[in-house]
Design brief:
By secondary structure, the chain is mostly beta strands. Among the domains are: about 110 residues, no CATH class; about 90 residues, no CATH class; about 90 residues, no CATH class. It has a 38-stranded antiparallel barrel. Strands 14-20-16-17 form a 4-stranded antiparallel beta sheet, with no helix packed on it. It has a 3-stranded antiparallel beta sheet with strand order 1-6-3, with no helix packed on it. Strand 4 and strand 5 form a beta hairpin. The longest helix has 21 residues. The N terminus is likely disordered.
Length: about 1150
């Protein structure tokens, strides 16, 4: 695998080298023009003819004429602004230029460009003069200051480069100073990774990578298995020896490991698509998954990531959701392997991989080592008592804890942190000492505490819901028997630093043309606790593997016999880096609950095959464990294809004996199908129908009593299917299955459940303008024996419909997506964290004047200099089962395409157009009045509706994009409801508006908007945040385009807001705003605005209602002003200066200044 990886990296580097030569022709630029009749400068360089493209379809070549670097308008465009894309030459043709004295000019035979145009060797490059390199990026440094904030500095640097330097040195690099890792969204098959920072240097056969890189399982090793994301240095080399043309490949690396490997078996729930949360090796519930490292297995088969594939994953919350292509049932087996971020200790690693390959021989050596530092990370913060606890724990950390209570230095009280005090209390005559109690009193708040969840009735503290900006825990007394009544304790689970190493060496020899023999030996070392010398006797282990294969050709009829023999030894204390066997190896051998032991595995197989028509394979296996376990497995595989018929059959039988149980595991399955080759009837051509049967019967009996153990199970199902293979127009698959499950009852199996499923998958394409795809699943689970089944009867629905339509010469364009499923909604908890002013989104308003932030005292900041808090969503382990529906619809109707040149009534109707969008995601409880599958019913009772996110917008246009005037009527409905730990929180905004535009002439434009809106907020717990506002607004505007450089705008807004609940607050707002812009294309721009806002507010001050009504302003007179100046100091360096000020009501005047210099290269 690594050789292919190197090959593709080299191929990419080579393509980048070529791309830098072609980049001169790929320099597409973008500009927005305010069209004025006459000549407008488009760029400082000459525009390449034929590359000018206007975003509006209403503007074609008849509107303009290209003149070097300018556009000459022949007629007025139908819009007030024009978005244009174009490409330029790296020079200005109209600029006077001469290389020699004009006196020496003599007549030439040919008229050539007046200078030597050699773009590939030009020294007139960007800010960085790197010949042979293609690069782009930027560097910015800025400051912000004001009388309401401290001085803040900010900077950013990004650079991407690729190309070839002298001496054939190839460079590929991505460099950034962004310290915040940007994890990609796990909803696509291919990930766009933004957080990789690296430099790759290659010369001939040697490649050096410094920075972020990945390593994968060496393709020549059996026991060595890993997929790691690292930060460090890696060197690879591949050399061909001249003497015997042998290939020597070497890889060496040293790095810091970003993550830790984990493997989790997910317990599925009938009809629940997720999310399913992943946990760490030590039971950590809230982990961050390293992007792209997950491998999800469904009944032993690996799934594909993507919203249109099998599953999606949220890497930041560690949650997996399965799509409509995979119905989750109680029967599926899901295993997830992944790497997750672990900041406990600094984990370093090094590796060496080397191989030697000739025509017959291949030998290799692999060494991997990773170790946690005992002196960095949390090790520096461990108390002597914690280190002692780790030394005495050995390899078992079950009871390795440290106190979670820490003291706060005197005078360091921080209101943004949860504080506690220590008290003694007496309950039922028993004195309990050192109880931690939440407090906001700086005099007694001398402690902070970290809590760990131990399980129900295993701790003395519980979570309590308060308005505090953080999690609060309260002590509860034990019951009369002394049993704890809580689930938490102020203690910290201790993690120990580990060291793990694996060495493998082996070889492979080719026997003739169709035979091979392979062998490998592995040594492992695992120290689970580097602080402790206890239990070190089990640190080291060995393993060995050997395999022989030989294929014999019998005759010219293409008959083949293939023989295989495999032997594997895994010593009891052998610890691989990650599982190297098949995902369900332990299930296949009934060793799921078995303790570690030395294993000997022997496999022999014979395969007889004739082309693709016939295959017969027999396999026998023996697994022995030194714990007294012996397993024998026989397997047969058969395939026959003849005249459209195909039969696939498999069967395995496992018999095991151990000191505690005997088992027999029978697993047959068969698939018989017929492919219809209809020559006369084209309708049935390509149809395929068949039947599939499968059974698993696992009898596990106690060695003493002849009764079935609880781990025994049996099921069988039959599936009938009919399908039509993919074609240009129509393809589909329809199948029905019935499954019977059995549970052990004394000495036999008893039927417990019956499940019926119907699945439909279809795709239809009538033409390029109409496409339909449907995926639907229905499942009905019936309970036959309620005493032996833990499930309840349930009907599950799962489906997705997608339809796209372009009709009537593009007059109607529609896209529809409809999806139904079942899942669960996690309860969310919000915490607000203080950041630098301007870097946040929220502001804190101390409404109760206690100087302690509460979560109901935060609002979205109206001004940037107030935004000094960010809101962090913390998902909990509390879920609500829901039925889900998603509906996305976009519809565009524009009759101009068919009636634009008509006359009379059709001409009038062509001026009407409509644009509508619906985006609805609704989750409801399973109730009779829930209307679960109807996305348009949003007004549901609070007891039924769990969460909703909807955005509905419809706009009807008259004379859309007309150069003289147009009119719009629109309606929008925005709703958002989420489930919090403290209850639900819902927001609503609906609006009706009418908007008109009239271009009086080329310089003057009048616009006006009138709207009626409802804005509401509803909180289940914090009723002081509830409001429902009726809002009426009128806003006329005058735009004066004096020239292509100067633009003046005057706006007046009259707004009336009335709260219809609570205290009936009311506000009258009159806002007068003027704005001026002076713009010299590609040189400089000056923008200034001034606003006067007069507000008359009646109601309670300092409330959420007032903040929403007044939009962060104050009752009375408000003044706001700003001035900004932007200038291009050179072709690549830009300066930005800005000043903002405001005087709101009786508050003091606020001044904010900003400055930034940005360099592009």
């Amino acid at each position: 695998m690594k050789h292919w990886l190197i090959f593709f990296l080299l191929l990419f580097a080579a393509s980048q080298s070529q791309a830098q030569r072609d980049s001169i022709w790929n320099n597409q630029r973008h500009a927005v023009l305010l069209p004025l009749m006459g000549r407008q400068i488009l760029d400082t360089l000459s525009v390449i003819p034929g590359t000018v493209f206007f975003q509006s379809k209403d503007i074609d070549s008849s509107f303009f004429q290209l003149d070097d670097n300018a556009v000459i308008w022949k007629k007025q465009p139908p819009t007030d602004s024009v978005s244009v894309y174009y490409k330029v030459f790296p020079f200005l043709l109209s600029k006077p230029f001469s290389r020699i004295d004009t006196i020496t000019i003599r007549r030439a035979d040919e008229g050539l460009i007046a200078f030597d145009y050699t773009p590939f060797n030009s020294t007139q490059g960007g800010l960085l003069d790197l010949k042979g390199m293609d690069y782009n990026g930027s560097f910015a440094r800025g400051i912000s200051f004001g009388n309401n904030q401290n001085l803040t500095l900010n900077s950013s640097f990004n650079l991407q480069m690729a190309g070839t330097l002298d001496n054939d040195i190839e460079i590929l690099a991505a460099i950034s100073d962004n310290n915040i890792p940007l994890q990609p969204e796990g909803n696509t098959k291919q990930l766009q990774e933004f957080d990789r920072v690296f430099i790759q240097i290659k010369r001939k056969n040697t490649t050096l990578i410094a920075g972020d890189y990945d390593i994968t399982r060496p393709n020549n090793s059996y026991f060595m298995n890993y997929y790691k994301r690292l930060q460090g240095v890696s060197v690879t080399n591949k050399t061909i020896l001249k003497k015997n043309k042998a290939e020597v490949a070497t890889q060496a690396g040293i790095a810091i490991a970003k993550g830790k490997f984990a493997r989790q078996i997910i317990t599925s729930t009938e009809g629940n698509q997720g999310p399913y949360r992943l946990e760490g090796n030590e039971g950590e519930r809230f982990i961050i998954i390293m992007a792209g490292t997950e491998r999800v297995y469904w009944d032993g088969r690996q799934l594909t990531r993507g919203f249109d594939e099998d599953y999606t994953i949220d890497y930041n919350s560690g949650e997996v959701v399965f799509t409509t292509r995979r119905l989750i049932t109680k029967d599926v087996r899901i295993i997830v392997e992944f790497e997750y971020a672990d900041q406990s200790y600094l984990r370093s690693m090094y590796l060496i991989n080397s191989s030697y390959k000739t025509e017959k021989w291949r030998t290799y050596f692999n060494l991997y080592s990773e170790q946690d530092s005992k002196t960095s990370g949390i090790a520096r913060d461990l108390s002597p008592e914690a280190i002692t606890a780790l030394r005495n724990a050995g390899d078992s950390l079950t009871y390795a804890f440290a106190t979670g209570v820490d003291t706060v230095e005197f005078g360091n009280f921080d209101p943004d942190i949860i504080h506690y005090k220590l008290i003694d209390t007496t309950v039922a005559g028993i004195v309990y000492h050192n109880i931690v109690v939440f407090t906001t009193n700086p005099d007694s708040a001398k402690y902070t505490a970290r809590f760990s969840e131990l399980g129900v009735n295993k701790g003395n503290y519980i979570r309590v819901q308060t308005a505090a900006n953080g999690r609060i825990y309260a002590w509860v007394a034990p019951d009369q028997t002394g049993m704890p009544q809580g689930s938490f304790e102020p203690i910290i689970r201790l993690a120990a630093p580990r060291k793990q190493q694996l060495l493998t060496t082996g070889g492979e020899y080719q026997l003739g043309k169709k035979g091979t023999i392979q062998a490998e030996v592995a040594l492992s070392n695992l120290d689970a606790n580097r602080f402790s010398e206890l239990n070190n006797q089990d640190n080291n282990g060995v393993a060995a593997f050997a395999k022989y294969t030989q294929t014999f050709d019998l005759d010219s009829a293409k008959w083949q016999i293939k023989t295989e023999a495999t032997y594997e030894l895994a010593q009891q204390y052998f610890n691989p880096l990650a599982p190297y066997r098949l995902t369900e190896f332990t299930r296949d051998w009934n060793t799921q609950q078995a303790a570690k032991a030395t294993e000997n595995l022997l496999i022999g197989a014979v395969t007889i095959q004739k082309n693709t028509m016939l295959l017969l394979r027999y396999e026998t296996s023996l697994l022995q464990r030194n714990s007294g376990y012996t397993g024998n497995k026989q397997g047969v595989r058969f395939r026959l294809s003849e005249k459209g018929w195909q039969l696939l059959a498999n069967a395995t039988l496992l018999n095991t004996n151990s000191t505690t149980e005997q088992t027999q595991f029978l697993r047959p399955n068969a698939d018989l199908s017929y492919n219809i080759q209809a020559k006369k009837n084209k309708f049935f051509r390509g149809w395929r129908m068949g039947i599939y049967v499968e059974e698993e019967k696992n009898q596990r009996k106690n060695s003493i009593a002849d009764t079935l153990l609880a781990a025994s199970f049996r099921y069988y199902f039959t599936k009938i299917y009919i399908e039509k293979a993919s074609s240009n127009q129509f393809s589909w698959n329809l199948n029905m299955l019935r499954r019977h499950d059995f549970a052990p009852f004394t000495k036999a199996f008893t039927r417990t459940t019956q499940a019926d499923e119907l699945n439909l998958l279809a795709q239809w394409t009538s033409n390029a303008n109409s496409q339909l795809s449907v995926n639907f699943t229905y499942r009905n689970l019936q309970i036959i024996n309620e005493e032996l089944s833990v499930n309840q009867p349930q009907k599950s629905y799962l489906g997705r419909l997608e339809y796209t339509l372009q009709a009537w010469k593009n007059t109607i364009r529609s896209t529809t997506n409809y999806e139904i499923s079942s899942g669960r909604e996690p309860k969310i908890e919000y915490n607000y964290l203080q950041v630098n002013i301007g870097d946040g989104v929220y502001t804190w308003i101390d409404r109760n004047l206690d100087s302690i932030p509460q979560i109901n005292e935060f609002e979205v900041a109206a001004f940037k200099d107030q935004a000094n808090y960010v809101r962090v969503a913390i998902t909990t382990n509390e879920y609500i089962n829901t039925n889900n529906v998603q509906f996305n619809q976009s519809l565009n109707i524009d009759p101009r395409y068919v009636w634009g040149r008509k006359k009379g009534m059709l001409k009038f109707l062509s001026k009407l157009s409509d644009q509508a969008t619906f985006k609805i995601s609704k989750r409801v409880r399973n109730a009779q009045d829930a209307n679960a599958w109807n996305p348009l019913i949003l007004n549901l009772p609070d007891s039924t509706l769990v969460s909703v996110l909807s955005a509905i917008r419809n706009v009807v246009y008259f004379n859309r994009a007309h150069p003289k005037y147009d009119i719009q009527y629109g309606y929008s409905d925005l709703r958002n409801r989420i489930v919090l730990v403290t209850g639900y929180e819902a927001r609503l905004t609906t609006e009706h508006f009418i908007q008109g535009r009239w271009n009086v002439n080329a310089q003057h434009t009048l616009q006006c908007q009138v709207s009626q809106a409802i804005q509401g907020n509803d909180s289940e717990v914090f009723n002081n945040q509830d409001y429902r506002l009726n809002i009426t607004k009128i806003q006329p505007e005058w735009i004066w385009q004096l020239s292509n450089k100067f633009r003046f705008t005057a706006t007046y807004k009259h707004k009336v807001s009335q709260n219809t609940i609570g205290e009936k607050e009311k506000a009258f707002i009159n806002d007068i705003k003027v704005e001026a812009t002076y713009n010299q294309a590609s040189v400089s721009a000056i923008r200034t605005n001034l606003s006067y806002v007069n507000i008359k507010y009646t109601g309670n001050p300092n409330t959420s209602v007032q903040y929403a009504m007044l939009e962060g302003l104050q009752n009375g007179k408000n003044y706001l002003w700003s001035l900004s100046y932007e200038r291009a100091l050179s072709k690549n360096i830009f300066l930005t200066l800005s000043y903002e000020g405001r005087k709101t009501g009786t508050a003091k005047t606020v001044h904010v200044g900003r400055a930034q210099v940005r360099a592009s290269f």
